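User: Here's a chain of 94 residues. Predict its fold as tokens.
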Amino acid sequence: MSMKRTKQRTTSGRDQDGGTDFWAKPATPEKTWEEQVEGKGDDAFVAYALSTRFTKGQLVTHPKFGKGVVVDADASRVEILFQDGKKKLGHGQA
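Assistant: Prediction complete.
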């Protein structure tokens, strides 16, 4: 008596999405430091202080790194894009 075996299911190329979420919005290209700071006067920048809370998009001036733009903020850290690159700094701590 023979037993009927089911075929093993294989995934085809069309079932795989390459690890990306099909329904996700396409990522917007990140602006460069020059694009974000262009045309902004010195009065638009806030002096960086560890005790100050910052929000995404806020313009900051740092004594060591110079002018920057907050690109990400969470409860205790901000990521600021300076001319030399991104830096993670603390914020909002009393």
